[in-house]
Amino acid sequence: MKALQFTTTGEPLVVTELPVPEPGPGQVLLRMKAAGLCHTDVGVLEDEGWLELLVKTPITIGHENAGEVAAVGDGVTDWKVGDRVAVCPTTAAGAPGFSFDGGFAEMMLVDEQTLLPIPDGVDWVLGAAATDAGMTSYAAVMTRGGVKAGDTVGIIGLGGLGQIGARVAVLEGATVYAAEVNEAAWHLADELGLAGVQKSIADFPDVVFDVIIDFAGFGTTTAQAVDVIRRDGTVVVVGMGKLESTISTRSLILNQCILKGSNGGTKEDIAGVYRLMATGKLTPVTTTIPFEEIPEGLHRLHDGQVTGRLVAVFD
């Protein structure tokens, strides 16, 4: 089988011919159908700091994966050949492309605990995208933010994650406002069902926010969220545009702000995304490429030339 393997920092992925792995006890072999490309993959290629997180080199990367069950090992009873499944990257088995060979290959061997079903009505492309971008956005809004119907929610940043997070909040019955510095993205407001959009979350003086999710994380964005959140409201920080933020302790204390970080999510969060995708009302923008164009796709991702989530599809 063909696989795209990472060898070391600063070097391109290598097309390698590998034997098809045999599933052992508790393992499942997948025939890959779709694999998402992420800025994390770009980081692995460029920053040697990622090396210490890899269980081995060379290693097949790719951590947003959807595929069809091709074979099962001894003791596997929950999955059968032909099942449509996704791979959760946050289980105790570790992350694909880091703890074991990932999805930039024709076949992929996983522990059965990583799998969850892709429901009818969700295609392979969205099935893959939901396992990272979808999971992270949903977890920030619903699991960490606790958004519920009737809440007034602020979303900072309408990038890939922010768009999904905003739409999730709308579909769950919240009134949602967005802060986005790039006015070229403001046209998304109607499509996402937003109540309003401005450059800063502080530009809604008459809005009382129950929850604010900062998908940008540029320091000042978090500080502004803490300033404007209602008393006992929640601010969730997802984005890492800057790795430090100076916030007003006065605002933190007087607002009794509940300030949380959010990192990834769980299988339950992916299932939550699938529930909304299956209705046809959550359809994140995606760009697809064939498997052979993954290296070029990572260059496009690095250069900011991708619209929505970039997903490789397999014949």
UniProtKB/TrEMBL annotation:
Q: PROSITE patterns recorded for this chain?
A: ADH_ZINC (PS00059)
Lineage, top-rank taxon, reads Bacteria
SMART domains for this protein: PKS_ER
Q: Which UniProt keywords apply?
A: Metal-binding, Oxidoreductase, Zinc
User: What InterPro entries is this protein classified in?
Assistant: ADH-like_C, ADH-like_N, ADH_Zn_CS, ER, GroES-like_sf, NAD(P)-bd_dom_sf, Zn_alcohol_dh
Q: Which metal ions or organic cofactors does this protein require, according to UniProt?
A: Zn(2+)
Q: Does the keyword Lyase apply?
A: no
Q: Where is the Enoyl reductase (ER) domain?
A: 10-312
SUPFAM superfamilies from the entry?
GroES-like (SSF50129), NAD(P)-binding Rossmann-fold domains (SSF51735)
User: What family does the Swiss-Prot or TrEMBL record give for this protein?
Assistant: Belongs to the zinc-containing alcohol dehydrogenase family.
Protein name in UniProt: NAD(P)-dependent alcohol dehydrogenase
